[in-house]
Amino acid sequence: xxxxxxxxxxxxxxxxxxxxxxxxxxxxxxxxxxxxxxxxxxxxxxxxxxxxxxxxxxxxxxxxxxxxxxxxxxxxxxxxxxxxxxxxxxxxxxxxxxxxxxxxxxxxxxxxxxxxxxxxxxxxxxxxxxxxxxxxxxxxxxxxxxxxxxxxxxxxxxxxxxxxxxxxxxxxxxxxxxxxxxxxxxxxxxxxxxxxxxxxxxxxxxxxxxxxxxxxxxxxxxxxxxxxxxxxxxxxxxxxxxxxxxxxxxxxxxxxxxxxxxxxxxxxxxxxxxxxxxxxxxxxxxxxxxxxxxxxxxxx
Length: 300
What we know:
With 300 residues, the protein is mainly beta. Strand 25 (252-254) and strand 26 (257-259) form a beta hairpin. Strands 1-22-19-24-17-14-13 form a seven-stranded antiparallel beta sheet. It has a seven-stranded antiparallel beta sheet with strand order 2-3-4-11-6-9-12, with no helix packed on it. It has a four-stranded antiparallel beta sheet with strand order 5-10-7-8, with no helix packed on it. It is built from three helices and 27 strands. It starts with a helix and ends with a strand.
């Protein structure tokens, strides 16, 4: 089998230096908008910030999507307009369903900030099926201990969402979704099953290959559908697997808004400018103003 037989697309990241840490973004991109329901894929860090520093993402809105936060190192304090106030730590998952509208903030917790916070993890956005886009906002925190872990042949894989390797995560899904954190020891190997319509692999750390073909860090590798392949590492690696059912209708993306309807994004834009979104209890004093960009952006 050649590389082209197995790998459909290689998406290189756009890297942003946010002062103290970098974000590497592979979705959305011009070459490809989505992999299954995933339409936003960011690696945060790795970074070790000095004492007193930290992240301060002021309150901002979302509509018609779900966000997923998953950390390898560090901690993030999450507040939202539902009244949620908690800290996510490595191995747990935060799933925030925006539905018809939610506002949230993300900041380094005080104890982390005092000692010098670490930051390393993945943030993703998931498109919601059209029937669920205007659902009520919701938040779900799933503790590390509640996520199933598969251990075999030098592999420890945590299932973040969906059904993989005969196990199922308790995290809510709206469309068929697979998402896993695969930790490979030196010489470790694991099958990448073909059940999902669309699948992609992302090496967050270390070295890995798929059926003998090298995978470079920070690149999202979209696999051809229907093929069983084996993921391996010679020296150890951390690899994310994501994907799920293929969406038949496109999504428009503008700032923090996602929708199947362009006019819905324009409605949300005007609502944020007019102060009609709910506030975040305990974090009402600041917010991110809407960018002055005249039109929505869609990725065909």
